[in-house]
Amino acid sequence: MPPRSKVSQLPPEIRDWLDRELVEGEFSGYEALAGVLAEKGFSISRASLQRYGQTFEDRLAALNVATRQARAVVEAAPDNEGAVNEALMRLVQEKLFQLLMAEEGQIDLPKVAKAVAELGKASVVQKKWQAEVRDKARAAADAAETLVSKSGLSGDTVQQIRKMILGIAE
Hints:
The protein is mainly α. It has a domain at about 1-80. It is about 75% helix and about 0% strand. The longest helix is centred in the last third of the chain and has 42 residues, at about 110-150. The protein starts with 11 loop residues before the first helix and ends with a helix.
């Protein structure tokens, strides 16, 4: 098993600084970064920084692609009931569980626990939002039904309008 990267062993605040510098410097200037790190007491070669930077840049690019694709999907198929968000939360739950099982003693349990807690909180907020949307749709359907009934339309037409508002009809 190869030794851990020196960059991964940096204190979090130094690694955060390095990440910002890499992004702001458009993933260049590794020699200068190695010099600044040396001044701060961390001996990391330009080559090590470049390997780390390349991996970081690749992940950032993948994240940007995923973000653009997600926006395109949302624009093409709006998700008024949050089904995509719910599916995503379930996927993250599954992946966290797999990570937990695969990496038994090698994971940062407090971070995983925090992620699970935040995911649970997001799920509760999602369910609450869905219930609010359903309640508002029912209220709108009831109001429309009352209004349309007074206009003299047939019962079938009123029910058709109600179903359309609630998203039951196609």
